[in-house]
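Ligand: zinc ion. Inputs:
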Amino acid sequence: MKPLPDPPAAVLDRLTGARGRQDRLTHTEHLPARPARYADWPEEIRPEIAVAVEGIGIARPWTHQAEAASLAMSGQNVVIATGTASGKSLGYLAPVLSALLDGTESANGRGATCLYLSPTKALAADQLRRLGELRKAGDGALDLVRAAAYDGDTPFQEREWVRQYASLVLTNPDMLHRGILPAHTRWASFLRALRYVVVDECHTYRGVFGSHVAQVLRRLRRLCARYGSEPVFLLASATAAEPGRTAGRLTGLPVAEVTEDGSPRGETVFALWEPPLTELQGEQGAPVRRSATAEAADLLTDLVLDEVRSVVFVRSRRGAELVAVIAQERLAEAAGLATARRVAAYRGGYLPEERRALERALHSGQLLGLAATSALELGVDVAGLDAVLLAGYPGTRASLWQQAGRAGRSGQGALAVLIARDDPLDTYLVHHPDSLFRQPVESTVLDPDNPHVLAPHLCAAAAELPLTDSDLELFGPSTAPLLPQLERRGLLRQRPGGYFWTRRERAADAVDIRGGGGDPVRIVEADTGRLLGTVDAGSAHTSVHTGAVHLHQGRTYRVRDLDLDDSVALVDEADPPYSTVARDTTSIRVLDTDREVAWGDATLCFGSVEVTNQVVSFLKRRLITGEVLGETKLDLPPRTLRTRAVWWCVTDGQLEDAGLLPEELPGAAHAAEHASIGLLPLFATCDRWDIGGVSVPLHPDTGLPTVFVYDGHPGGAGFAERGFQRAGEWLGATLAAITACECERGCPSCIQSPKCGNGNEPLDKGGAIRLLRLLLAGSTGPGAESM
Ligand SMILES: [Zn+2]
Ligand SMILES: [Zn+2]
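Predicted complex:
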């Protein structure tokens, strides 16, 4: 890998100055280089480990690696939360390998074992490869460590060997949940000897998925206790606020944190970029900015022509493929087909062989530009990039730093560019650099006590071993009231020995821990029957309804038919000049109000709701420009969702005092709802697609004008709760975003929403500002004083 041809500032100059794009740059942040800080391995670490590590070119560990190893060796659970490429794995591998070597010398049976969990199979495979390198460097000393992957790809004839003989098993939470824990008796000797559990990339366990993983880990701990082991948990996280607390919530144990990063960093230039306004008009005549996708494709084209090795992170699969296709076209025109072929798309959802081919091309340098979804964050080593483009804010500051950290390894300079999408959050951020560069990263939100999450794990646990009173504390406060309910539903039966699972089917099969809910929908090419990929059941109505345009590997497909009974979307290859956007209607009912605070005459609440949603039609939008071409009705059944919501109500008297007329109220409340959904990700680790909203001028349950924001997953995921806790700051930022927007009557950068079920009708920008001002005037929550 050749170093950057020029310092990052010079590369940025060529992207802007040389091409007349200076006005698109809203801010440039220079992050200075940071020198490395070294320490010594703790004395308990076996000398063979230090030798092997030296063999891969590391003479002394960085401070955070040594600190984590030392805590682990002393038997403390520990989470390492440092930057991308800071060698977190070595921090936990050193104590793990050392313990495994110690174990091989003890005569009693199998010796020590370790379980390694990663969110993806690809990451586990990568880790196994790195272990191989370390072993080679150890020159025979580490041969006694028997490492093996155990996942869906492991051939059946190898599985028995892994269970009986492997000392380090690499797997994922899904396999632990469905494959290992239900068959624990076959894993008895492994579990009995379990010394360490490594939870890699633990920040990805957030929301509903994180809550499920938290319960899977509790089931693991329970079985270990039964077999007489009490493993130490070693976690690795991207930079996050309060990592020890989150890791504690995930594991149910006290966890020490290591956050002082001792690794070196090259100079990084971080640019904030706002695409220009176009001549086009959007919904309700709003001004339209150039899309982040089109802008990113242009910048990628220029970087590739400049021989700058770059990755673009795009939020959607479809967007990643569009960026690659557009850049390829531009490069073919500018420099010929051979150069065009040096750009590709990478995202999750590909079949394994497709993924591997792309990874190889990237490693070999055959690829110069890659457009990827955040799937690339996990499991694929993309060392040695010069530039990272982020087409849209990735949802959290933690992901922002993780993605930006892909550039400029081992002390090289690096360029990162955040390209704003036309939405309230992105626009707010590129004009408020302090909220990116002078704010701590968010903490990871998860809610293991969600009864929707907990109930199936109690069933699975009961199937593994009968549940007794001694398990109540382990599974948390929701457990005691849930058990009799599960018995009434005929799932568990109470006998003298505890609660038993009585059904014939496997309890663990009843729950999909990725939170999709229901079977994923398969995408099948109608003419050939070829399986192209899958989408989860929750988003199928929106993304692969009949008539939807779906992209895969740069090819465009049109959905011929969505068959909900068989969970199949039949598609044809097609090349329409438009994309599609689903439209839906939503109503909401309050089931329970758990918490309520008064903000003057206004009230802010948190509780349980039932949301009824129906996808009713879709719009065709011209590619790139986003112009709306027409609307088509759909006939899909409504779906109901019981979840958690935060909502606020104002009184008629307040509206009168603020001079807000009754006819202005629907547009004002609707606009405030949209913008607040757009800004919530600044405070909770969610994105706007994880949450939804409803605004009602007179809601039957509250009797008042009410705006709801709810979690889009059954039982909630903690996002609405976080909104309630930080309501003052959250709604304050919402007001600031609307007030600061330069549009006249509302645009996608402030109050318009790309997923509005009502075509962004009605919206009242001025009304929203007055409504939020009167709400915040009485606010007492944190952040309220800033208004
Ligand atoms: Zn605007
Ligand atoms: Zn709306």
